[in-house]
Amino acid sequence: MFNYLIAALIGAMSAVLANRNIAVYNDGFRPVYTEYLNGRMDRKALAATSFAVSIGLIIGFAFTNSIAMGIVIIHTYLLMGDIIGTWFPDDKKGLILSAIVGALWGIAVVAFMSSIQAFFAWLPVNFLPQLAGVADYVVDTFAVFPALVVAYQCSMKKGIITAVITLVTYLLISRFGVFQIGEFTLALNGAGMAMLAGTIAMIVFAVKNKSEAAETGLTNIFSTNIQAIRRHWILFALMGGLLACAASQCFLTTDVISGPLAMNGSFGEAALVATVRAIGYIPLVYTTAIVTGVFSPAGSYFSVAGGLFVGAIGLAAPMGPIVAFAAGAVIMCLEILLLQTIGTLLDKFPALRELGDYIRDGMSKILELALLVGGFTSSFAIMNEVGMGAIGPMAVMITWMLNKTAKKPMLMPLAVGPVVAIALGIIANLIKVFGLAVAV
Predict the structure, then answer these.
(1) Distance separating alpha carbons of residues 269 and 142, to the nearest angstrom
(2) What is the percent of the chain with per-residue pLDDT over 70, rounded to a whole number?
(3) Could you give the 3-state DSSP secondary structure of residue 185?
(4) Among the residues of 88-222, which ranges form H helices?
(5) Where are the alpha helices (DSSP H) in 338-349?
(6) Mean pLDDT of the 156-180 span
(7) Most exposed: 5, 13, 182, 356, by fewest CB within 10 Å?
(8) Of 95-99, 108-112, 213-217, 308-312, which gets the smallest average pLDDT?
(9) 213-222 long-range CB contacts below 8 Å, 24 or more apart?
(10) Cβ proximity of 292 and 30 under 8 Å
């Protein structure tokens, strides 16, 4: 019941924020609001654009990865919130309808996730355990992304140095990372500490990297937009609290890394991943917000990271959700309060703004490859249940190559592994039912 309530509130809030032209989640859609707010686009065109830029992400990325990971990815709620909110007129009636439909969507997502897992468990070939293997390599390989970022932004030499720092830290922590303090045992996570060391090196290299400063300050030109966002701080605080609460309860995740970590009880590592991801999104989210006057309902994800940190503390119910909600609300308020300060900082230090772009790109490439490899192993395991294991990797490779060479790819690269694995799970059940299995 708690999950249904949180989901309904998140769905309603995201739809309301979009309907009132306050915040939308899709970073590519946010600049379009300038056309609408300036009267150069009507509401129908705005809604159509929202649907066009978001529906593919919802189906091809959010739902497929949510099913594969066993935890709802934030895009499932907030991208649909963009669509629902813009679909209704921005008046009192539209506000009420947006809240109702958004809440119903949130409830429907929880019901779907529960029923789909129960349905898979009922099938002759329950492929959920094998499907979870799609994310196996994500957790292990994500720690090296700072080295890729440094190589992109600075040089290959510095990228190699960062990689060495990351690997040495992993080896040292794995070997000597357990400390006995009286009756208390402190065990550091090798991958988490390795990523932290790499991240520190990444920031140091970025600060030392020279870039030309911007000639004009965005915060001065668009100061009215900043004030418009700040006026709605209460709504953002509520949204931040809800997202943090959901994250602390392993009910929602921002990505395919922190979610599985949190579900395995590694809240500290999950919070670290979410924090680094949030740093990477600061330039994109804050710049588009300052220019358009439309923020993101999730901010830069720091509220979600805060919820995971609360989970790491291990507070028992009912204190855990309450503390997480309060932490998320405070963090989101700080994001709103510091909007102008961070915008000014990005103007003065362009290297930090560039770092955000490289972080997002580096994360995407690491995840793309890790999920593809996970797709190979997971698909093999699924098809091996019916004696046709080799068909799994073949199907993943065929789909990857055709999708990569298509003029209009049907799938996001990140979704290829999970989508093929799910499809093969269904095929494996059909083979089992009709007795078509053959040894390959």
Answers:
(1) 11
(2) 93
(3) strand
(4) 92-122, 128-131, 136-141, 145-153, 156-176, 190-208, 218-221
(5) 339-348
(6) 88
(7) 182
(8) 213-217
(9) 213/347, 213/348, 213/349, 213/350, 214/347, 214/350, 217/343, 217/344, 217/347, 218/287, 218/290, 218/291, 218/343, 218/346, 218/347, 219/290, 219/340, 219/343, 219/344, 219/347, 222/290, 222/291, 222/293
(10) yes
Class of residue 83 by CB neighbours under 10 A (exposed 0-12, middle 13-18, buried 19+)? buried
pLDDT at 335 over 50: yes
pLDDT of residue 386: 84
Task: Quote the CA–CA distance of 206 and 215 in Å, as a whole number.
Answer: 20
Average pLDDT on 132-146 reads: 78
- Write the DSSP symbol of residue 418: H
Residue 431 Cα distances to 127, 258, 321, angstroms: 13, 35, 44
The predicted pLDDT at position 17 comes to: 95
CB 143 within 8 A of CB 170: yes
**H-run or E-run covering 286:** helix 267-292
| Token couple for 181 | 């303090």
pLDDT of residue 440: 47
CA distance 292 to 143: 34
